[in-house]
Each structure stands twice: as structure tokens, then as C-alpha cells.
Amino acid sequence: MRARIIGAAVLVGAALAVVASTASGGTQATNSITVWLQTDAQATNWEPIVKAANAAFQKDHPGVAVNVQYQTWGNHLQKFDATLAGGNAPDVIEMGNTEMTKYMAAGAFQDLSSEKASIPNSSTWLEGLAASGRFGGKLYGVPYYAGSRVVTYRTDLFKKAGIKAPATLAQFTAAAKKLAAQNKQKGFSPVYIAGTDWYVAMSFVYDYGGSIAKQVSGKWKGTLASPRSIAGLTAYKSFFGAVSKASKTTDEAHPNPYDVYAQGQAGSMIGPAWFSCCVGDKYKASTAQFVMPSRTVGQPLPGFLGGSDLAVPIGGNKALAVDWIKAYTSNASMTALRAIGNIPNTTSLLGSSVNERAAKRSWFVPTAKNWVSVENGNILRNMLAQILTGRLTVKQAAQSASDNITSVLNANV
What we know:
The protein has helices at about 10-20, 45-60, 75-85, 100-105, 125-130, 155-160, 170-180, 200-205, 225-245, 255-260, 320-330, 330-340, 355-360, 370-375, 380-390, 395-410, and strands spanning about 30-40, 65-70, 90-95, 135, 140, 140-145, 150-155, 215, 220, 270, 285-290, 305, 305-310, 360-365. The protein is of the alpha/beta class. A five-stranded mixed beta sheet has the order 2-1-3-13-6. Strands 10-7-11 form a three-stranded antiparallel beta sheet. The longest helix has 17 residues, at about 225-245.
């Protein structure tokens, strides 16, 4: 699943105006609800799941029609902004998890906190997905489905080196050294990771019990300089130095890891599971995936989950919208979604596939109003470049990043 990055600007003023002028129960007629889903759900094997949820909903709400409208990732935010400004937003909307924070901060969604206990599997939601729907201690988004990060690798090279899929980070490091010994061409990376790929680096931080930032007494505080975070950053530096020949200062999109892999310059790469689609015809038959291992035996490295949430916009019929969400995230729906290759929203239904095992431990960025400014300011990327190039010690770079994150997240709040 490709990462969904916040693109279009949110019409904050319009959303807040709607908040002020619209009753929480909504103004739409109660004989129908409108649901916005992405076009993924129109697939031949997916559409029956939507229809089954609609039927289950209508069994409890005879005479209430469900108007499902399919959107595209490229323009759905622009269309949503327009409906917010016009006061005619849908009752339910699917949002990419990375799109949630700015809209929650703008007051575009209704608070679902009091309904949480009645929503299926709410006590076992995938943490990295559930976190994207929380803001200011309240629930605004219900996890829908997820995509995990795994290791995509060359089975032919692993077999030649006598390597099996590793169970721990130490085993992976040792395997990478064997790969390097047998593949000495210039620029070959046993494990391709761009130095400033902060998604990978922060997974090490969370594996050691650290974090990026936390709220303390209503204020955000950067926590990358905590002992556990520093331990994770130190482990990342060590791992990167042992396994990757990528630039220490460029990001994961320049070049894309799968392009390096397709050119025969990587024995493996860490990233979203969909990377397997782009390994090149030459290596498709010899490509497989395994769970990125933790430092702890039998545990996956915590990963940043991609995925979607379901939210109820301001102006929507909250009662009916929540009941539809319950039907669409029921065990029956989640089991059906899993059967067609998606990761369900709950740990209770995770199976033994690589993607599902990888999703068992996950994390998400701080759901702070100003988080996008941390990303746009390249605070994490700059920190990693400083660490890997030796311009600063791990502790110095982490402290500087933590101070910057604290300042940025609390600005104008």
C-alpha cells in the first residue's frame, strides 16, 4: 500500500465555520446516508464486502438507503474541502491515516469517543492505525484496514549465501555481512536503506521503547533525547553502517529502493509490502518477503502502518454513520477483507502471513496540529544525516531534534 501524504490544504476556516453553525446530529435526511469510500472498494472481490455491510446496516435500519460514492486518492481531499465549505459533507468518509490529523485539528470530524466501546474490536485495534484517529484525547477515526512494512529480498542471493530469513536483528546483520562478502560490486547494498529514511530509523527507536514526542500537561515534548530513544538511534546507526551502501544524506525517494533493487544493486530492502510489485521482471521469480525482525527474538520491529480510517464529518448523521461503521468493521467484514489480502484493523484477527505478523507491533507519528511542519522542516532527516555522517554525536543530534520538535509542535497552540 503506498503511503498517503497530506497534499491539499485543509480549508480550516470553512471547517470551523461549519462546526459553529451545524448541529452535531447533522442536517441530512434520515432516510439515507452517504458514504465515501476509495475506488479500491469497487474491486470485484471487495465490492461484495461493502454490499454485505450495507445489508447488515439496513436490517437494523429498514428503509434507510446507503449511497456509497467512490472517490480517488488524487482528488478526494479537494472534494471534501468543498463539501465542508458548503455544509454538505458525507455521513462517513474514508481517510488515509496520514490525512487525519490536519482535519481533526480543524474540527472537521465528529467526536466518536462515547461510541468507541460499542464499535467492534475497539480494544484490540492495531495501535499504529488507531493512533491516527485520536486527537486531543478524543476519538475521531475508526481503523479500517492497514498495510505493513516488511523486508523484500532476493531468494537466489540468500540461498547462494546459505542464509535463511532471520529471526532477530543480530541474525539479519550477520546475514547482510555474508551477502556483502559474496556480492562485491560497487554500490551493492545487502540491505538497502536510505540514510535519512526516518520511517525505518524511528522503528528502531520504538523497538527500544523510545518515541518521537509525547504530551505532558497539555504540551508536546520531544522525546528523542530520552535514553531509550538514543539507544534506538544508536542501534539504527550501527545497523545502517553494517548493511547499507546508500547515501547517508538522501531520502528514500531519491532513488526509490525498488529501483535500486530492480537494478540488481540490493540483496534486500525495507519498506511497504507493495514494494514487491516493482522489483523488475528479472527478479520477480526470485523475490520474497519476511518480517523485519526486532532485537527481541520472535518479535517484529515496530513498523509505521499505512492504511485508512473511517470518520464522521461535521454535519453528517452521527447515529446512522456510526451504525454503518459498526457493520463495515464487524468481524465478518474484517474477515472478508483479510481473505482478499488486506490487514484487518484488529490484532485478534491477524493471521500468519508476513504482512499480518509485521503489523502486530506498530507506531504512528504524534497526532499534533503542527506535525506536518516537523516533516516539512526535515527535522528527523537532518538529525539522521548528522548522526550517520558523524557531524554530531547521537546524543547531540537527538537533543537538537527534540528541542526543535518541542518548539514546532507547541507553536501557536
